[in-house]
Amino acid sequence: MQISWFDRLKEIFSYLLTTGIIITTLFSLGGYWQKGIIFELISHFKVQYFVISLILLCCLGITGKKRLLLVGLFCTIINLTPILPWYIHRNGISQETPNLRILVYNLYGGRNSQYSQVTKMVRQENPDIAIFLEPTNTWFQNLQTLSDILPNSIASQSTYGIPPYGIVAVYSKIPINDYSIKFFAPNKPTIITNFNIHQQTIYLIATHPTVPIYRSTFKQRNQTLEALSKYIQQLNNPVILAGDLNITMWSPYYQKLEQETGLRNSRLGFGILPTWPAKFNNSVVLYILSRFFQIPIDHCLISSEIKVVNVETKANSGLNLGSDHLPLITDLLISKSGN
């Protein structure tokens, strides 16, 4: 019996859809290979691979090709595997009232002049500790208006003449015991400080590794993460590592950091919560692309002794914050020593 042109077209279409699903799965799996910048780059888009494969799977279902549909379903489940735990994991989550709120925000340096909007957001969120990345001198002047709620501050530029993209600043309503500024990479300071809550000394490490867009900066970022790992392993107290780490949870270099330090991502159980790029309101095309390609590169990693109550981004704050990052806000519970 002669096959109609429509059936031939449907068969070709079904194979193309299946091939597309397989390709997304190969990209997803390829990201686990710790073999250079290209493989690390493709590791960041697990959500996008799953969404694309799910759309293709729905289209494949219309063709009625059952065998190909099973192949597509199998691949789509593989793409879902690295995403699902971030929504269903419940260990380390508490329903009690938090006693520490941390805000992490990349200000976007001199390209962002929404000073009043950002300070308004900080007052609304009322963090106990706010970590700001890439502040300029003008930003420091405006952040000083928050001294009534965040009276204690540390800024890496106060001692070192480094460009704004490398500056890290910590503002706190909690008294700070002491601090140091370490350079795990050139022009990239890391603030290390500690404070007391419930008779416990907690170490806070605020950092902003290099953007890994070139082989040299890729290597530098990985060296920073490796140095941070070695430093954290020497500490005997609970640790909070927070900042724009320029890496997602699916990168093999990030996973190595977690495995070596025993830290866990506070967003585990609360969803992917992407933070970059933030929405672009000046173009419909850029808005759609930025929403689809958003990835989580701002993080708050914590020791096992610390519980998480809530994690969120200010994706719908109603404020024009002006940065290409979203603020990451983490509510933590630090129990009394010995509990």
Quick overview:
The chain has 339 residues and is of the alpha+beta class. It is 37% helix and 22% strand. The protein folds into two domains: 5-83, no CATH class; 92-333, Endonuclease/exonuclease/phosphatase (Deoxyribonuclease I, Chain A), CATH 3.60.10.
What brief labels describe this structure?
about 350 residues; alpha+beta; Deoxyribonuclease I, Chain A; 2 domains; six-stranded mixed β-sheet; about 35% helix
The CATH topology name of the largest domain reads Deoxyribonuclease I, Chain A
Total E-strand runs:
12
Number of helices: 10
- The CATH homologous superfamily of the largest domain is called Endonuclease/exonuclease/phosphatase
Looking at the overall shape, the CATH architecture of the largest domain is 4-Layer Sandwich
Largest sheet: 6 strands, mixed
Helix-strand pattern, N to C? HHHHHEHEHEEEEEHEHEHEEE
User: How much of the sequence is in beta strands?
Assistant: 15-25%
Give average pLDDT, whole number: 91
CATH class of the largest domain: Alpha Beta
Query: Widest sheet: strand order?
Result: 3-4-2-1-12-11
Structural class: alpha+beta
Low-confidence stretches: none
The residue fraction in helices comes out at 25-40%
Distance between the termini: 76 Å
Shape annotation: elongated
Overall structural domain count: 2
